[in-house]
Design a protein that fits this description.
By secondary structure, the chain is an all-alpha fold. It has a domain of about 50 residues. It has five helices and no strands. Helix 3 runs antiparallel to helix 4, helix 3 packs across helix 5 and helix 4 packs across helix 5.
Amino acid sequence: MPDVPEPARRPRLRLLPPVVADVLARPVEGGDEAALLARLEQALAALPADERTAVVSAFGYAGGAVGAAVELGVEVEDADAITRNGLQLLRAALDDLDAHGAPRG
């Protein structure tokens, strides 16, 4: 059987849609907005590549597990598991903050 070239993969990360950027840009009560966004960026950057792609696809672009599966080229169930793992890692990285981004005290 002749070798069939693999289709080119689409870039995994894209710019955030303006709607998502607007939500992220809202002021954070009781916390420093710039510091919170920097922490989120650091936490996302520290994720393994597949988990980062899954989380951004599923939640940043509101694609859910299907969107993550498309971006990763895996089955939906696998993408869902990778997304959940990425969220657990993000929660652990940001565990010292409350739901509003303020330090737990």
